Every structure is written in structure tokens, then in C-alpha cells.
Amino acid sequence: MARIPIWIGSWGSDIGLKRVARFADGWLASAYNTDPQLFAAGRHRLDEYLISTGRSAESFPNAIATMFFHITDSRSEADRVTTLVATFLNRSEEVIREHLLIGSWEDSAAKVAAYRDAGAQTMLVWPVEDELEQLERFRVRIMPAVV
After folding, report:
1. What is the percentage of the chain residues whose pLDDT exceeds 90?
2. Which residues in the chain show pLDDT less than 50?
3. 5, 14, 60, 71: which has the fewest Cβ within 10 Å?
4. Cβ atoms 64, 12 nearer than 8 A
5. What is d(CA 101, CA 108) in angstroms, rounded to the nearest whole number?
């Protein structure tokens, strides 16, 4: 029977990334604690730790986890959802606006593309509300824009 791959989450701290390099089969970066630049820097450090432990950096998978999203062209709706998520995560609204996919599809697609360009291989998305409608918006608007 095959072993289940174990992925470890890390916000990008050196200790966390060393743990990932030593024990994990993949790295989960937290969407609300990183941005594309921090992710790229963390991935670079992780690659160094993997190599120093004798592991392949090229074949080591990664993902952005807990990418909350809500696609809307309504500024007031985006602000309401931002406040809701910021309260839930105990983060500032500014951080939520900057890091997560809440707002227009164009801004959200640009953020997804920035993560792709920073080396992210997978993104685990989580609609905040109106799940089926939001997933359809994501599929129709964002996915084709970042292929």
C-alpha cells in the first residue's frame, strides 16, 4: 500500500521551511500570510534547504492554501466581504485586500498570475459565500485569464 504524501504548511519562516525540507512531501504556503514576492523568496530558501538535505528542489511540489475569494465588481460588496474575512482571520483589512482574491475578476486574475509567475504550482481556493456562483465566476473569468 502506498504512503499518503504529507504536506507541511509554513508561512515562510526559516524554521518552518527547514521543517518542510526535512519532513514533507510538499509545501503549503498560507495565502493570507504571503504575497507573490514573499512566496518566491520562501520558495528560493526552501530549494536551498532541500538541496542541503540531499533532496530534489525541482520535483518538490508547492501550493498556495486557503486562498479565500469573492469576485465582484461592487466596491461595497468587496468591502463587506473583506471586513468579514479580516475579522474571521484576525488580520487587517489592508492585508486581506492585498493578499486575497476579493474584488474584481481583473485584479484577482492579476494576483493569480503573479503567484504563477512566482513559481506557485497549485492554488487551493475557498469561496467566502455564494459558493456555486463564485466558483462559476472563477472558472469563467479567472482561469482562462491566467492560462
Report:
1. 95
2. none
3. 5
4. no
5. 5
Backbone angles phi, psi at 129, to 5 degrees: -155, 175
Q: What is the pLDDT of residues 44-85, one digit of tens each?
A: 999 999 999 999 999 999 999 999 999 999 999 999 999 999
DSSP code for 119: T
For helices 36-52 and 14-23, angle between their N-to-C axes, nearest 10 degrees: 50
CA triple 97-103-108, angle to 5 deg:
85
Q: How far apart are CA 21 and CA 10, in angstroms?
A: 11
Helix (H) or strand (E) run with residue 21 in it: helix 14-23
* Beta-carbon-side half-sphere exposure of residue 122 (alpha carbons within 13 Å): 12
DSSP 53: T
Cell match 506557485: residue? 120
Residue 98 vs residues 5, 26, 70, 133: alpha-carbon distances, Å: 31, 25, 13, 23
